[in-house]
Specification:
- By secondary structure, the chain is mainly alpha-helical.
- It folds into two domains: about 80 residues, Rna Polymerase Sigma Factor, Chain: A (Orthogonal Bundle), CATH 1.10.1740.10; about 80 residues, Winged helix-like DNA-binding domain superfamily/Winged helix DNA-binding domain (Arc Repressor Mutant, subunit A, Orthogonal Bundle), CATH 1.10.10.
- The chain has eight helices and two strands; from the N terminus they run ααααββαααα.
- β1 and β2 form a beta hairpin.
- α2 packs across α3, α4 packs across α7 and α5 crosses α8.
- The radius of gyration is 18 Å and the shape is globular.
- The chain starts with a helix and ends with a helix.
C-alpha cells in the first residue's frame, strides 16, 4: 500500500519518491497490463504509458478511493487505448495459472467436472471488453463491486450486472464445450 507521505512527495515533484512509487507498484501494474493485453511486450508498453499518465495526473488524484484503485483504473484505460490502437483484444489469464478450474454442475447431485484452463481462457477472451474487465478486476484482483464501479466509471449496480452477465456467458460457453 502506498502511503500518503509518498504520494505527497510525488506531487511535489520528488523524482526519488516517484521512483519508489513505481518500484512498489510495478509488479501489480505489469500483471494487470499483461492480463488485459495478453502480450509481454505490449504489457511493458502499457505499463510505461500508465506510469506516464500517473506522473502527469497525480495532482488530480483526489483520494476519494485508494491509490491502488485509481492506479488500476489508469492501467486499465492505458490498456484499452493500446488495444483499440491495435484493433484486437488479448488474453486475460496468464501462463502461470496452471491449475485447472473445477466447476460444480447444478443438477440432481453435485458432479464435479474439470475444465481446462485453456477453455476458461478462451471463454474470457470471447467476452466483450467491458465484461472481461469486470471479471478480471473481481476474480483476479479481488476488487469489490464498488471499487470496480469507481475503476470503470460506472455504478456499483452496473458492475454487479456486468459481473453476473459475464459469469453467465462464461458458464454457458464452458458447459456447451464440455
Amino acid at each position: 500500500m502506498v502511503s500518503r507521505e509518498l504520494l505527497e512527495a510525488c506531487r511535489k515533484g520528488d523524482r526519488g519518491a516517484f521512483e519508489e512509487l513505481v518500484e512498489r507498484t510495478r509488479g501489480q501494474v505489469y500483471t494487470l497490463a499483461y492480463r488485459l493485453v495478453g502480450d509481454r511486450h505490449d504489457a511493458e508498453d502499457v505499463a510505461q504509458d500508465a506510469y506516464l499518465r500517473v506522473y502527469r495526473g497525480l495532482s488530480g488524484f483526489r483520494e476519494d478511493a485508494r491509490f491502488e484503485t485509481w492506479l488500476y483504473r489508469v492501467v486499465t484505460n492505458a490498456a484499452f487505448t493500446h488495444l483499440k490502437r491495435r484493433g484486437r483484444f488479448g488474453a486475460v489469464m496468464t501462463e502461470d495459472q496452471e491449475a485447472a478450474v473445477e466447476v460444480v454442475e447444478q443438477g440432481a447431485g453435485p458432479v464435479q467436472q474439470t475444465i481446462d484452463r485453456d477453455e476458461v481462457k478462451r471463454a474470457l477472451e470471447d467476452l466483450p471488453e467491458s465484461l472481461r474487465t469486470v471479471v478480471v478486476l473481481r476474480d483476479v484482483y479481488g476488487l469489490s463491486l464498488r471499487e470496480i464501479g469507481q475503476e470503470m466509471g460506472i455504478s456499483e449496480g452496473a458492475a454487479k450486472v456486468r459481473l453476473h452477465r459475464a459469469r453467465k456467458k462464461m458458464k454457458d460457453k464452458l458447459w456447451t464445450t464440455t
